[in-house]
Write a structure and sequence with these properties.
Belongs to the RecA family. RadA subfamily. The protein is of the alpha/beta class. It has helices at about 75-80, 100-115, 125-135, 150-160, 185-205, 225-230, 275-280, 330-340, 365-380, 405-415, 425-430, 445-450; strands spanning about 5-10, 15, 35-40, 70, 85, 90-95, 120, 145-150, 165-170, 205-215, 230-235, 245-250, 260-265, 270, 290-300, 300-315, 320-325, 350-355, 385-390, 390-395, 400, 420-425, 435-440. The longest helix is centred in the middle third of the chain and has 18 residues, at about 185-205. It binds thymidine-5'-diphosphate and magnesium ion.
């Protein structure tokens, strides 16, 4: 008879402890420990990956051509670094309803239509419901296997029996292993199922995608545990109400991270947005104060996007500040730079800063754009509509060079912009001929003189 014991897991990082603690010693989060009952097995824990028999010389190890399966969805292929790597395990995270199942069903359709064997395992929807969704997103010409099951053993057997090239587990939170007594979705279950899928994927050269819902704190249950176990982590971002969805690579053992894919949720599934800059700038107000266009490098791709700021005298004790799509603390910091170095009286003003289109940007190159949007709204003077802005701003008010200057300028020129406000240090480096008027600035004061 296997013995049961109680252990406690941190729901943030998956740290395991034999007693409850207020603060997790690993990730320092408070109140994250949850109780779980686990059955002790003789071997103790999940089996690890089958490894080679003995140590080998690196020169003797042969690599077959790193095989990639193109998904037929270019935006996804780019985020993955050129297609799905055979035998890899990937995690697709995101809020419920953002479109994870839809995207993966579309991938299954494309692969099935190109004569590859795929298996879609769902623990959330019935065959009937999946079929209804499949009918919305288009025709399936070839056979695709569907399986509705939540038991880990049954799933593993099904995969081993059918031997697909590509399998989807939708979602990790609904799957459970009989060996553990804790509920589906608990840290130990999520870990166990992921480890089992890792073995299935690597030992049989099957590419497996796991869907994971994120909690309201924005993380998949036991995120660190999952993220270090899988090869690739993709997150689906965006507001459920907004049309655009952004797929971001957070970890990728076979390619660069930071790449993004932009999609639009339509009546017939997710549609790729081929020119995000153009789409994001659609319907931009002309000659309005507080509106500027910035250029941010997302992976290898420059994306132009509008930042809007609204600064108005406050009627509250404490001025209100909000930031949507941009780091709130960064906005506060840049406002402090404007107060201290330029002397704008922002202390008595409410300030709202938004990024259009439901995008989230974190690149420091948008600093100068945020500063100029705030100043433009404060002074109520618009910035010429044919201008794009990029540059990093330091605490002393200096404007620092950013990488990828030429790529940014090229993208702006393609979309018909005529003037670019950029760090002086970048102007000195640029070698390409351009029709754009490049206005170099070396500090915030110089930039604000242009408004
Ligand atoms: P879904 O893929 O089920 O989300 P997740 O698996 O991440 O929870 O996305 C479902 C949402 O997308 C739902 O609100 C309906 C909408 N939708 C469309 O707008 N068009 C479509 O063609 C499909 C299939 C779904
Ligand atoms: Mg789903």
């Amino acid at each position: 008879m296997a013995k049961q014991k109680t252990v406690y897991f941190c729901s943030q990082c998956g740290h395991e402890s034999s007693k409850w603690m207020g603060q997790c010693p690993a990730c320092k989060q408070w109140n994250t420990f949850t109780e779980e009952k686990v059955t002790e097995t003789k071997k103790g824990g999940a089996k690890s990956l089958k490894t080679s028999a003995s140590p080998m010389n690196i020169s003797e190890v042969t690599v077959e051509n790193e095989e990639r399966i193109p998904t037929g969805i270019h935006e996804l292929d780019r985020v993955l670094g050129g297609g799905i790597v055979k035998g890899s395990l990937s995690l697709v995270g995101g809020d419920p309803g953002i479109g994870k199942s839809t995207l993966l069903l579309q991938v299954c359709r494309n692969l099935a239509n190109s004569k590859r064997k795929v298996l879609y395992i769902s623990g959330e929807e019935s065959m009937h419901q999946i079929k209804m969704r499949a009918e919305r997103i288009g025709t399936f010409e070839e056979e695709m296997l569907l399986y509705c099951e939540t038991d880990l053993d049954a799933i593993t057997n099904a995969i081993l029996k059918t031997k697909p090239e590509f399998a989807v587990i939708d979602s990790i939170q609904t799957m459970y292993s009989e060996d553990l007594s804790s509920a589906a979705g608990s840290v130990s279950q999520v870990r166990e199922v992921t480890a089992a899928m890792m073995r299935v994927a690597k030992e049989n050269n099957i590419a497996v995608f796991i869907v994971g819902h994120v909690t309201k704190e924005g993380v998949v249950a036991g995120p660190r545990t999952l993220e270090h176990m899988v090869d690739t982590v993709l997150y689906f971002e965006g507001e459920r109400e907004a049309a655009y969805r952004i797929l971001r690579g957070v970890k990728n053992r076979f390619g660069s991270t930071n790449e993004i894919g932009v999609f639009e949720m339509c009546n017939n599934g997710l549609v790729e947005v081929e020119n995000p800059s153009k789409t994001m700038l659609n319907g931009r107000p002309i000659d309005a104060s507080g509106s500027v266009v910035v250029c941010s490098m997302e992976g290898t791709r420059p994306i132009l996007i509008e930042i809007q700021a609204l600064v108005s005298p406050t009627s509250f004790q404490m001025p209100r500040r909000t930031a949507v799509g941009i780091d709130y603390n960064r906005v506060n910091l840049l406002m402090a730079v404007l107060e201290k170095r330029v002397g704008l009286q922002l202390g008595g003003c409410d300030a709202y800063v938004n990024l259009a289109g439901g995008m989230k940007l974190g690149e420091p190159a948008i600093d100068l754009g945020i500063i100029m949007a705030i100043a433009s709204s404060y002074k109520n003077r618009p910035i010429l509509e044919d201008t794009i802005i990029f540059g990093e701003v330091g605490l002393v008010g200096e404007v620092r060079a950013v990488s990828g200057g030429e790529a940014r300028i090229k993208e702006a020129q393609k979309l018909g912009f005529k003037r670019c406000i950029l760090p002086q240090a970048n102007v000195d480096q640029i070698k390409v001929q351009t029709d754009m008027r490049l206005v170099g600035v070396s500090n915030v004061m110089e930039a604000l003189d242009l408004i």
